[in-house]
Write a structure and sequence with these properties.
The structure is a homodimer of 341-residue chains. Chain A has 341 residues and is an all-alpha fold. Chain A is globular. Chains A and B meet through helix 5, helix 6 and helix 7 of A and helix 5, helix 6 and helix 7 of B.
Chain lengths: 341, 341
């Protein structure tokens, strides 16, 4: 259900050479191992079975994009003196993301994630739910280490926003009557809210000014929106081999994303998405719909929307002092969105 | 899976007349409506479907035992001046309890709870998980209203303890090889930890001394242990009509509780629990095992263990100033445990 930091794994033919993320993390790269150690410490529990299950979930972790955003957002401000707060916060953002994936995979009955078996594929639903709950709790415990009430509230509300977004997606399945605002609401819940909390909390803990905190929050929000739109586009333009899953899986699962919305806006004489959902989604109708999406320019239009969010992300950074961290944040927009095709 | 404040609904023949709980809540009764309002406010969300599902979960709420414990624990100290912190904390304890029940019922595939349909009986597993997650997040958000980092950490760790306890119970199903310590660990997770956090947080927010905070934590822990043991006993001595579910449901579900443990300790020549689990739990073997438990005195011995925890709960209150609240806390032990048979 969530985009899994996929761009670097997907090699779209039109893709240009991309700078490795690790280079973009330069200004905070020295502190990422502390995040890794904090995350690995989560499995140090006296209950061996729980330790094994957490270890499995954390063993093939992502690229630490969210923790890097937290640290980069704090880097231009009182960073070193607040590193003991920034590290647990950054770790909590990754753990929150991981916990939502554990529950998502159970909700979706997904068998694999990041190339390895999901928890729900080898333990019961009950155990999966409880391990996810445990990870939510542990992430809140890490946030409490910051001793900052403001980020604790922000963190709790982010989880509420995530759940709200996921519930919207769940109940909007196979409903073609959706507005672009509803789509934006859903992808804010599933992705942008976590990005904006990552950057807002980093700036807050590093004692940035209210204006700068708002700037980094807006940067995170707009980057997250662009990131998710690109992911939703890749679902249509990637091949099964590139995506590691069948192409157009969103449409197969009844999830209406931006390309499908733009197709409906564009075609006034008929509604191919309505037809697809009402057809019982046979393979031919699905292939026809995907072909329509690929050929009518809605991919390009969707990408233009993502680029618009990217521009806003970069513009938001205006109140942030120039320096290596700001350059890295701008570079991330470039790497994650602008040069993803 | 959780005891649902059942004693007042169960009328065991040996039960004496019991004081209504509402009378015991006297010293804080005037403030419970504020807790109710806070809880009802949880369903005020812009998403009508989520509002409906939360409304359903909260519509038939329990007796507010956990919120009452929070308020009573704060009552002897700086209560009025901290009421704006105590009310959200008390509400959060009830919401945490409610959220765990939502996930538990899904884990157990339970169809009813508190005499009404469970969430999982009429929406998908996915929606049930997400509504539970939302309620966890909202409870953490309420705790953040206290602006007290110590209770925020305590709250997060309590959810970790609950999950740990539930996972222990899940993985110990149909395993007769369990120690009394393992049983205590599990019931601390499922019940006593929430009781002790209720009382510890109340005392903390009302600015009790460290010694008094520890006293109220210990009171809550011991009361919770006794409360759960009584519940585990009622599962054997109540009839189906009294319990609202088949008698000995724990044994049916493979959950080994104190009476079964004591039976195994007592019978050295054979192991009836092992035999039952290995028999595939046919009705006759189950009935025979329940009869053994009822006739060999292990019910009485189990009750003696509960009473020992009750005594510790009352003894723990020593550093708490005498007054109406302390009298109520002692009365609760009496009502929930001592006079439950």
């Amino acid at each position: 259900m969530h985009r899994d930091d996929r761009p670097s794994a997907v090699h779209h033919p039109a893709m240009t050479e991309r700078q490795p993320w690790s280079e973009l993390f330069g200004p905070i790269a020295a502190d990422l191992p502390a995040v890794d150690r904090t995350l690995q410490g989560v499995k140090d529990v006296p209950f061996p079975l729980l330790a094994d299950l957490i270890g499995h979930v954390l063993s093939k972790s992502g690229k630490k994009l969210r923790p890097a955003l937290t640290l980069l957002a704090g880097r231009p401000f009182a960073y070193q003196s607040n590193l003991h707060r920034l590290i647990p916060m950054a770790s909590a953002m990754e753990l929150l993301h991981t916990a939502t994936l554990v529950h998502d995979d159970m909700v979706d009955d997904a068998a694999t994630r990041r190339g390895q078996s999901t928890l729900n594929s080898f333990v019961s639903r009950g155990a999966t739910v409880l391990v996810g709950d445990y990870l939510f709790a542990k992430s809140a415990d890490l946030v409490a280490e910051t001793e900052n009430v403001r980020v604790m509230t922000l963190f709790a509300r982010t989880l509420m926003t995530i759940c709200d977004g996921e519930l919207h997606q769940l109940f909007a399945s196979f409903n073609w009557k959706q507005s672009r605002d509803e789509y934006y609401h859903r992808i804010n819940g599933k992705t942008a809210s976590v990005f904006s909390t990552s950057t807002e909390s980093g700036a807050t803990l590093a004692e940035a000014s209210p204006e700068q905190i708002a700037a980094l929050r807006d940067y995170g929000y707009n980057l997250g929106m662009a990131f998710q739109i690109v992911d939703d586009i890749l679902d249509y333009v990637g091949s099964e081999a590139e995506l590691g899953k069948p192409a157009a899986s969103d449409l197969r699962n009844g999830t209406v994303t931006l390309p499908a919305l733009l197709l409906m806006e564009r075609m006034t004489d008929r509604n191919p998405i309505k037809e697809l959902f009402e057809s019982g989604r046979n393979d031919q109708t699905l292939a026809d719909t995907v072909a329509l999406i690929r050929e009518t320019g809605v991919i390009e239009d969707s990408f233009a929307v993502a680029q618009e969010f990217s521009r806003k992300a970069i513009a938001a950074l205006d109140p942030v002092p120039d320096g290596e961290a700001k350059t890295a944040l701008i570079g991330l927009v470039d790497a994650l969105v602008v040069r993803s095709f």
